[in-house]
């Protein structure tokens, strides 16, 4: 048990390293965006495709974990929409709260899964990503289109194009297609993908740390704290409980639980900036959820291994 928790610690050390590198100006600011682009468009697909391609998806655990994640997101999204009239927030701020409670950072989630559950857990996690990315993106784009500053209605075709332009989603779909078609491992191609993928997780963590900004946390502490509470206190047991309800085994339950405990996604900041959301508020939510998740994940793993 101590070894499992200790295995998660390096994940957050890597995030802290990225934050320190950015703050110290070890690398110029303008270099981080190309590094992020390399990671998202090349390294992470190199990791995800072979992980899903070689996964054993014959049992019900993958479906239970993915179903739990999707249903939990839909429940929290619906409740957040119902609660909007009670919130004293303008439209752009509300969109950042909405993104903050349902989106999560796969850069952090996948290394935590690897450290906690190994290759079998990673395969389940990759399937969850393939299922949850379309749901969260469609919901967030729709909310931003309605309440973001200066937005026009988003057409279904534009939404589909945006989904298909997401390299992480595409990598998941390619991996699933290869898996379902029972395509055997291809020497050379598989090795190349795995070599690319070996760099994805550590570099992704450094990028996640470099993107943290705490400037807004103190100024809007109650909004950010409330959003973080839903994301990190409500979502993990909800996903865990739903996975049990859907018949997931112990491994699937653990992966679902950690999916709920993953911090806010850096992609949410970019979307807020592009579609008239409150980008500074979004940055604050991402920063606080990242710090709190470093405390929550060991606690959740301890509880999980008691069950």
TrEMBL record:
Pfam families: Mem_trans (PF03547). It is a multi-pass membrane protein. The keyword Endoplasmic reticulum does not apply. It is found in: Cell membrane. The keyword Amino-acid biosynthesis does not apply. Its main location: membrane. The chain crosses the membrane at residues 62-82, 94-117, 123-145, 157-178, 198-217, 229-248, 254-272, 279-304. Keywords: Cell membrane, Membrane, Transmembrane, Transmembrane helix, Transport. Belongs to the auxin efflux carrier (TC 2.A.69) family. This is AEC family transporter. It comes from Brevundimonas staleyi.
